[in-house]
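Sample pair:
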Amino acid sequence: MGHHLMLEKQSAYGRMIDRLNRFPQGAPESETLYSILKMLFTEKEADLVAQMPIRPFTASDAAKRWNMPETEAHKILDNLASRAMLVDMEVKGEQRYCLPPPMAGFFEFSMMRVRKDVDQKTLAELFHQYINVEEDFMRELFVTGETGLGRVFVQEPTVKEPYAMEILDWERSTHVIETASQCGISMCYCRHKKQHLGTACDAPMDICMTFNTAAHSLIKHGHAREVSKSECLELLHQAWEHNLVQFGENVREGVNFICNCCGCCCEALGAVKRFQMTQTIHSNFIMHMDESACVKCGRCVDLCPVNALTMVRNEDGTRRIDFNAELCLGCGVCTRGCTKGAVTLVPRPERTITPLNTTHRAVVMATERGNLQNLIFDNRMLFSHRLLAGVLGSILKMPAVKRSLAQKQLKSRFIEKICEKL
């Protein structure tokens, strides 16, 4: 097996994996990953993707890197974008392309509609092996670092007074929808995958939401259907009624996706149960139980998507409900089943720092994971910020404790101000 991986590492697909791992959201090498990439990309495409910059780029940029005419580069890029392997966007009248990370990115995009150009059943089996059986990918995504790719949006109707006014705009999924430039609806990747495996639940399938740049690209190429803001809000209410968790992009501005997740199919919620932690994704609210009002009916236990609540029988035969605060998502689903008002949401003692935008998140995640240099030397936008490069280079050399303290300051102040100007 080791010899086979060594040979693969020298291939175009091996170089593509190296390219993926230059970004904070990487993809640990395994034979399963090679099989996935071979289904999604030709060898020639993998070789070209391996040369792509991390930042968005034009067909002219690609043509220079690939040493080919711009018209040919444009054709290749458009083909990849049509299959949702790339995201294409218009920036100041110029067409640009970007290789999304595997998750949330081209892994999901490949299963967000029924397709005949790829064997989705085999692909679903490979995804299940790589994501649900092998642990490296999900551990890297959800356990490494303090800043996650996604975060849970609290269900707004479940937060009662006096705390309802404490939900900030960027914590409201309704606000994301109402302020989006475009809204798209696609098939849920997780439940579609489970459908091929014969284990999907009966939660709504066509309810995966994309917004802004991501929605524009997916709608353009038929991977999502465009919906009005009012229809998107109706689907959000439908998700609430089906006790689905809203898990969206971990940024305050320009949120590109909100998934509506169930505890049985969703890979993110599955990772919470597997690794017994929510520190990178929970909302700024947490469940509170009024023991005097609780009748131990167990409805909240049944509804919790990550098993943060469990029913326990005492030695005297009575029952109690145990609560694991470390697992609580702060989603609000549990409160919907309580008819006695015993289960409510209250603000967490400390708010989680949410990155300003995708640039801010990428820099923070790279800092935490020790690969910030890949962003600095790949992205020429940052070359003018010599101070940033010098400061962050010093931070990476600090002892762990001091580095951790410095990173907290960077996340909340310095990097945010830099990213506002990019």
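The two ends are 45 Å apart (CA to CA).
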